[in-house]
Amino acid sequence: MAGMISTVLGHESVILQWLQAQKNKRLAGVYLFVGPSGVGKRLTAWALAQAYLCSVESQACGQCPSCLKVAKKQSENILYIEPSGQQIKMEQAQDILKFLSLKSWGGHRVVIIDQAHTLHPSAANALLKTLEDPPPETQFFLIAPSVSSVLPTLRSRCQVFNFYPVAFELMKNKTQAPDWILRASRGSFEKLEQFQEESATQIRH
Questions:
Q1: Buried b (16+ CB within 10 A) or exposed e, 111-127
Q2: What is the CA radius of gyration of the chain?
Q3: DSSP string of 109-139?
């Protein structure tokens, strides 16, 4: 595996289920990734988007022009949406609809909605019909902390994948952080960075 999938720590069952569905041509149109922050939901979404867009290998070759663009977050076939301020606003929902209405740049398209629980109700309503029946060759990845945090009208249109804290040993192999910091971070790289910054600040002072 040369693509971004190889950089995801843990979450093998999520990746395998998605790859199997892709192989069997049974991909859902909309996936909802839920779980603690900092465990790899966003990275997994980008990695699967890369695999979806790669025409060389089902798991992404990591070397073709499409894969390289995705790795640099420069693919014209991916629209990444995150909150503008505290919410994902109506204008951003319209950006999604506009992106999907354009003639495809050459096949598949992906929309990643990070922190989907912050979708303003009007923005969510604008997307309901599209999420109910996404255009052909389109994948939606929605990212949120929990199923219950997402509007019921949205989550009923999604296939849910649960993400869990990264195993201690996997984190230990990835970083030089002391064990006490790794344990305190509880499987979240976001918390790990926070603890490391706080620890470095205390040492400087």
A1: bbbbbbbbbbeebbebb
A2: 18
A3: EEEEETTGGGB-HHHHHHHHHHHHSPPTTEE
Q: What is the mean pLDDT of the chain?
A: 90
CA distances from 171 to 55, 186, 193 (A): 32, 10, 12
pTM for this model (two decimals): 0.89
Query: Is 87:119 a contact under the CB 8 Å cutoff?
Result: yes
Position 201 pLDDT exceeds 90: no
Cβ neighbour number for residue 82 with a 10 Å cutoff = 14
Other residues' Cβ atoms within 10 Å of the Cβ of residue 146:
12
List pLDDT tens digits, range 68-108.
Answer: 999 999 999 999 999 999 999 999 999 999 999 886 555 79
Amino acid at 67: C
DSSP bridge pairs for 80: 112
pLDDT in tens, 115-151: 999 999 999 999 999 999 999 899 999 999 999 999 9
